[in-house]
Amino acid sequence: MDNTIANIGVIFELLMEERIFKNLSESEFINLALEIFRLQYKNNKVYREYITMLGVDVTKIYSINQIPFLPISFFKSHEVVCGDGDKYNNIFRSSSTTSSIPSKHIVKDITLYRNSFRKGFDMFYGDIKQYCLLALLPSYLEREDSSLVFMVNDIIKDSQHPDSGFYMDNYSQLAEKLVENERKGQKTLLIGVTYALLKLAEKYPMSLQHTIIMETGGMKGRREELTRQEVHRILSGAFNVENIHSEYGMTELLSQAYSKGKEVFQCVPWMRVVIRDIYDPFRIGLINETGALNIIDLANIHSCSFIATEDSGIAYPNSYFEVAGRLDNSDIRGCNIMAAEL
Fold first, then answer.
1. What per-residue confidence (pLDDT) applies to 335?
2. What DSSP designation does 287 have?
3. How high is the pLDDT of residue 62?
4. Which of 117, 219, 266, 300 shows its CA 20 to 30 Å from the CA of 254?
């Protein structure tokens, strides 16, 4: 048997789901993260070559802040996967414009993703069966390889509510359903991409007392870019709600963070945000300082659990963080150069 494939079997045996998806103590999280790092270094060719290129001695890594984080741009140019990339359940791709290359995330075990988002949702919002879930994700529905649509579609099925479902450009029907649910006192979760929620707010403002509004970010080039704070102010006013919720996730991850308002996110127990200095990517672990977001996602065991994103923000104690915005090209230039050289 090929040693690499055998090692992947060892990964799955050693990192059983009950070790990842539990309320990990800080020491348990650190130990498991270090274990996953060493296994991914051995079995993920792209990650190993990146670490070698940095000249890092992996035998001297004993803390999370010493772990090299793979630039997220590698998912656009390489197959970031442990072992054989031809053996997979799904491939998720990011949205892209004509001037950008989409990221590709090879998912070898889709049950890991399902368990991650189901357990994460339950932790933050309770049993999905109490909700009618309405999804306003028109631009994502145009693609068949969206991880967000996969997640929301699964949660819609889990809700078992006859009125749960997706909406494209039929804003009037969605508005009617929201009014009907409000009249019934039905708990409702409206999850939508930012530009579509803003359009709904402009066309059909209403008072929603039984509805959680959750934005997933992104104008997708459809509207002028606004800060999350500006978006939430507009939506709160249009729908007469105190807080707008948010989901933070991305194609390259298998876990999400959620915000229940005030633009502050909290990670699930198997995920962490670690802030790096924008101008010195090896200065890691900043607290209460603005920097670039590094993400540890333990569920990403068959890909890479240590990703340097192109978002900026601030980390706080107890797995809370804020997202300030996107880094510009000059801030991430060094990462892009290394990606091109590999």
1. 43
2. S
3. 94
4. 219
d(CA 316, CA 245): 19
Beta bridge partners of 297: 271
94 forms bridges with which residues in the sheet?
none
* Cα angle 142, 312, 190; round to 5: 40
- At 259 the pLDDT is 96
Give the Cα separation of 342 and 327 in Å (integer): 22
Quote the pTM value.
Answer: 0.88
Calculate ∠ Cα 37-335-30, nearest 5°: 25
Q: Determine the average pLDDT of the residues in 3-28.
A: 67
CB atoms within 10 A of CB 17: 17
Distance CA 323, CA 311 (A): 7
* Cα-based angle 195, 197, 198 (whole degrees, multiple of 5): 65
Q: What is the pLDDT of residue 132?
A: 98
Residue 3: pLDDT over 70: no
- Closest by CA to 123, choosing from 257, 244, 229, is 257
